[in-house]
Amino acid sequence: MYGGRSSERDISIASGTAVLNAFKKLSVNVCGIDVDRNVAEKIKKEKIDIAYVALHGRFGEDGTIQGMLEILGVPYTGCGVFACSASMNKDTSKKLFQYENILTPEWKTLKKFEVLPEVKKYPVVVKPVSQGSTIGVTIVKKTSQFTDAVREAFKYDKEMILEQFIRGKEITVNVLYGNALPVIEIVPKGEFYDFKSKYQEGCSKHIIPAGISNKAYKTAQNYAEKIYKVFKCKAISRVDMIVDNGDNVWVLENNTIPGMTITSLLPDAAKAVGYDFESLVLKIVESAL
Ligand SMILES: Nc1ncnc2c1ncn2[C@@H]1O[C@H](COP(=O)(O)OP(=O)(O)O)[C@@H](O)[C@H]1O
Ligand SMILES: [Mg+2]
Hints:
Blueprint: H1 9-25, H2 39-46, H3 64-72, H4 81-88, H5 90-99, E1 107-111, E2 124-128, E3 138-140, H6 143-154, E4 159-164, E5 168-176, E6 179-180, E7 184-188, H7 195-199, E8 204-207, H8 214-230, E9 236-244, E10 249-255, H9 265-272, H10 277-285
Antiparallel strand pairs: 1-4, 2-3, 2-4, 5-6, 5-7, 5-9, 7-8, 9-10
Helix pairs in contact: 1-10
Magnesium ion binds at residues 240, 253.
């Protein structure tokens, strides 16, 4: 299942196409289902045994498609309704991180049309509460950029968060069935890990294992495994973090359906522990059996 109606549709098509090709290589009887309003009919017509969910963003990574599959009684890969919906909401996620003593940048959540607070210290990060792929995210450096950033974030959601900016190395930790994979350090070509850096070949570099202290490395893996448990993830999850100059590890967010495109992070981390793309896909399928 791929495509869908979210603003990450194109990325989902890339992930889904890569997964489809892997299945074809493995001679698995497979069909691609683009998730539109007729998805339930399509699923019934194709008489599928299991659904591989390769969707990102709204209606795919937020628990809604998982809920529909539960109702239809179709086994599906990866995280369930709770893990997806809790992770998709950055405000709820951050509250859970705090409760579990996981360091996360300070933030304030704002609803559309609410009065904006005065920002005392720049830069500050503005992002939609429920989005992915850095869509709608701005690192605001001065007052004059603030309202445009807020407008951009509200294009994608009715709520946004205003978050403390953390300067440091960007890392991500994938978790496979509860176990953290090697930590990846991300070096974007541009200023931060924006949409282009994420998906255009050559626009970011992945360093495995990340060039951080042993202490930060362990903390990052522990955080990721803890988040996998607390959010009740299944099969896979990927936690985005930043390590600052004081060696503190800050958690930004949890992703329940990490990208599977050629520039994606999960396939790279899995490769480092011996999974080629096809074996990773099969490993994920186990969660639906
Ligand atoms: N608090 C922050 N401090 C510094 N950079 C940030 C912060 N929040 C987000 N970013 C940058 O924006 C990117 C996207 O933010 P993230 O919270 O991971 O949302 P998304 O769901 O869009 O991936 C991050 O990978 C990072 O490069
Ligand atoms: Mg992210």
